[in-house]
Amino acid sequence: MLPAPRRQAKTMLEEFSLRFALWWRSRGSGVTAHLARRSYERPPYSPAIGSIRVGAVQMRPRPIRRAWEFADHAYEMARAAVREGAEVVVFPDHVSLPLLTLVPGLGDAVTANASLEEALAALGEAEEPEEGGEGISVADVVAVATPALARVYRTTFATLARRFRVHIAAGSTMLAERDGRVLARCHLFGPSGRLLEAQAKTHLTPLERRWGLGSGDELRVVDTAVGRVALTGTMDSAFFEPFRLLDEAGAEVVLQASAEVGEPEPWRAMGGLWARVQEACLYGVQGALVGEALGLRFGGMAAVYAPLALTPEGDGVLAAARSADADEVVVADLDIGALRQLRRSRGVRRNRRLIGRYLPELYTRPWPWPEEQGRGTPGAGAG
């Protein structure tokens, strides 16, 4: 084994070489130039007053060799939604997973029918591990690749939002933070291409914990031209607390990025976003990752949910994907005016004395009770 100073120098040199290779493969000019050659027509669409049309993207990750291939797939899905009149387009959780195959050595290993974790284990065995080392994790790779991942991801979705003149909830991507943690953040871009919000997922799947990701501890609501919007990830809708807090903060539409690992199961939707929509009395738009990627099987479905009273069939579903294994976009119109009226007419009132006894911290939050002082404070956080 090499002496410690030489191992450190070797590691620094390898990391520099890796970062340079990633920079070259992910340079933003290539993505921008490729997207500039695409057409961005918008069909005429006149929504009813007080309504917005949303598009939920269901997509199969594609193996890529160049950054522009990722951008091209995102463009195709956004265009399909815009052609249906969507003003808001919602992409899946971990939409940027294919970008990890730009890492030298990792892409070839994954292409050879190895899972992401198997490929990382092989890369770790090729190194000279330090005594007591634990091998390479997904978070380790993301920490080195963050500049490249962020460049391609943000350039792609900011360009699409600006050129199509729509809001794009760009799913999530894993990025390293300044404090060293690696978080999966859901991003929202406005029609100008400006980043409006980057919400860290507050709850993690078992797979994400195994990958070494950290979780966020704050929820935000963003005032936009299409209503009061919040962003959530896959596991955030498995618990009622995040949606309870978003309801208190005045969220009207939750844009959920989903990537359910495993075979499609109807009970997942009923126990996830659908249930939270009914509890919190708001709209839910879910983009979903499906099919196989990096040795993983994803089985969610894109859908648009609403309170029972605001759906034609009274089932809480405005639109849902036809298949659980193909690229697809589902669209639906959200009547924000009707939602606000339904919320005003709700006769149910919470027992504040009961809640205050067991959850006193709820009374220290920075927004007022909605039945007393409106629907919350813009941009309020809930930690």
Summarize the structure in short.
By secondary structure, the protein is an alpha/beta fold.
Written description of the protein model:
The structure is a single chain. By secondary structure, the protein is α/β, with parallel strands linked by helices. The protein has one domain: Nitrilase/N-carbamoyl-D-aminoacid amidohydrolase (4-Layer Sandwich), CATH 3.60.110. Helices cover 37% and strands 21% of the residues. It is built from 13 helices and 13 strands. β9 (283-293) and β10 form a beta hairpin. α2 runs parallel beside α3 (67-83). The protein is globular, with a radius of gyration of 22 Å.
Features:
alpha/beta; 13 strands; disordered C terminus; 383 residues; 21% strand; 37% helix; 13 helices; Nitrilase/N-carbamoyl-D-aminoacid amidohydrolase; 13-stranded mixed sheet
Topology:
Blueprint: H1 4-26, H2 28-36, E1 51-59, H3 67-83, E2 88-90, H4 106-111, H5 116-126, H6 138-164, E3 167-176, E4 182-189, E5 195-200, H7 206-211, E6 222-224, E7 227-232, H8 240-248, E8 253-258, H9 266-271, H10 273-280, E9 283-293, E10 296-299, E11 303-305, E12 317-320, E13 328-335, H11 336-345, H12 352-358, H13 370-373
Parallel strand pairs: 1-2, 1-9, 2-3, 7-8, 8-9
Antiparallel strand pairs: 1-13, 3-4, 4-5, 6-7, 9-10, 9-11, 11-12
Helix pairs in contact: 1-6, 2-3, 2-6, 3-6, 8-10
Termini separation comes to 47 Å
The CATH class: Alpha Beta
SSE topology string: HHEHEHHHEEEHEEHEHHEEEEEHHH
Radius of gyration: 22 Å
Low-confidence stretches: 1-13, 126-133, 366-383
Would you tell me the structural class of the helices and strands? alpha/beta
CATH fold-level label: Nitrilase/N-carbamoyl-D-aminoacid amidohydrolase
| CATH homologous superfamily (4th level) name | Carbon-nitrogen hydrolase
- Continuous helix count: 13
* Number of strand segments: 13
Overall, the morphology is: globular
> Considering DSSP H and I runs of 4 or more, what fraction of the residues is helical?
25-40%
Average pLDDT for all residues: 82
- Major sheet, described briefly? 13 strands, mixed
Number of domains: 1
Beta-strand share of residues:
15-25%
Task: Tell me which CATH architecture applies here.
Answer: 4-Layer Sandwich
